[in-house]
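Quick one: structure tokens for this chain, please?
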Amino acid sequence: MKNINRINPLVYLFTLGHFATDWSQGAIPALLPYFIAVCHLNYQDAASLIFANILLASISQPIFGYYSDKVSKPWFVSVGPVICGLTLAVIAFTTNYWVIFVCSMLSGLGSSIFHPEAALMVNKISGKYKGQALASFSVGGNVGFAVGPLVAGLCAYEFDIHGLVVFGIVNVLLAGVLYYFMPQVLAQAATAETAEQKAHPVDSRRNDWVSFGKLSIAIAVRSLAFKITNSFIPIFWITELHASASTGSLALTILFSIGAVFTYVGGLMADRLGFVRVMRLSFIIMVPAMFFLTHSQNIWLAMLLLIPVAFSIFTPYSPIVVLGQTYLAKNVGFASGVTMGLGTTLGGLMAPVVGRAADAWGMGAALQILWVAAIFGAVASFMISEPRAEGTK
């Protein structure tokens, strides 16, 4: 427990920013049943809103990451949450499908602006406790994904949809806090970078693209598990478990609340046991967890299964990010954009496909892709070796 106190306190500023960004992202899937009812959508049209959310993000996130390696733009860290919050606030005042589609797309863009630069900054100021620092940073996002569906669900199904403006208000305030403290962050980052360059000159760093390529398979599988569960758990609860819309949103909140704990635990485990070992364990658990969840017909059993599902999705998050940053030591920003950004958005490219399958065969049948993909992730994890670099075991 002593190591917990050694995390740079400034990391928690980025944790707040991560919360602001991802509670907005987490709200959109919880609103899908509302959009289906109000806009008279089928599952494919509803899933296309998730596709819109990740469309620009999937393209721009690696670009922003590559750009941050060349010319860092710290103000991106404040701009991203503002865009995410304001676009969600706009959704509160329209029932036009295409306006919602564009807002969802722009919200994803805000997320892609935030993640690479924020992860790069956390990497710079975290010292040798990178696993714990990335885990603390990531917890903010997971808490956001837990709180976002709950707040959005209350607005849509219990109170007034116009309450979504709270996302804009909170995000603007938290972005202001980030902007205010950014000079202090930059000063510490510059000091840490100077020390790092003396200890490990840039010329001695190298990119291991082969290992990063293998890691990309695991990234894709985890992204699929993350985004498909995030998108369809509320609908699965309604259609397969015959629960109410608010209970479906609650299930999503429970998943991400448990996930926030496992994200932090994953960082601690990785610093002690090794990043690859933790990742392998997670994918091995993911196979039976997803199989039994997608075959469940009992709401209480399904709720219980959210525990191993959360472990398998969230525990490997920090290890995967640190591994990517280690494999691409000369392009940490780009690695952050791929591992942290695409790690939560790439799976959304499959959302319309899963939605179409659900229209044709039912939601339960469509979600079988989760445990099948998990098998590929488990196999891929054993193709990846532990890197020999500072910060890994």
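The chain has one domain: 9-381.
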